[in-house]
Amino acid sequence: MKSEILRAAVQNSPQSLLLPKGFVDAAVLLPVWQNQLLFTVRSADLAHHAAQISFPGGRFDNGETAEQAALREAWEEVGIEPSSVEILGHLNPTLSPFGYRVFPLLGQLWQEPILNPSPEEVSEVLWVPIEELLEAPAYSEERTVSRANQPPLDPQDAVRWGPSSFKRLVWHYPWRGYDIWGMTGNIVHDLLERIR
Question: Which of 6, 108, 12, 117 is nearest to 54 (CA)?
Fold first, then answer.
């Protein structure tokens, strides 16, 4: 897949998404090297999304932009040198049911990365060909997310979904025995729909 296709996929401004009360900002990097996306399998010992497939990323440090946070987290989690990444653009931000407004950034790697995954955060690194994701038998499901022990929703969402739970569409992309799903699946879906 040519870099022009990837660049065109993120040329339009992303949709805006208000920060719900109680949520914090985070960013993820979608690293692309030779037409493959890098995913991590999160450590089974993590508090949130343990053993799930994700992109490198995390919450903003004070004063950081989405780009700075995504590049810093990719360096800390898997050892991607920030200077080796060209940020091509932003995908649509999304909400995590764990209280994060997440900004996904598509980044082209211009040299082969020498990865050094952090064992505290990452149990495995996956390089997934974008063409295989385009051909994957993707499906979506509507899931009800309990609001117990969750930050309060934006008042408009609370009216729409109720005070104790809300529904969200979750995409699944099966790939070689793995299930790329949840927030990561939704971000993948946004990217692939822009490429198609």
Answer: 117
Distance set, CA 29 to CA 82, 135, 182 (Å): 11, 22, 16
Residue 5: count other Cβ atoms within 10 Å of its Cβ. 12
pLDDT at 158: 47
Which residues are CB-contacts of 177 (< 8 A; sequence separation ≥ 6)? Answer: none
At which residue do the structure tokens 């870099």 appear? 3
Handedness of CA 166, 134, 114, 110 (dihedral sign): negative
- Rounded Cα–Cα distance for residues 129 and 120 (Å): 26
- What domains can be seen in the chain, in order of their start residue? 3-195 (3.90.79.10)
Does the predicted TM-score (pTM) go above 0.85? Answer: yes
Q: Write down the pLDDT at residue 148.
A: 52
Gap between the Cα atoms of 104 and 49, Å rounded: 17
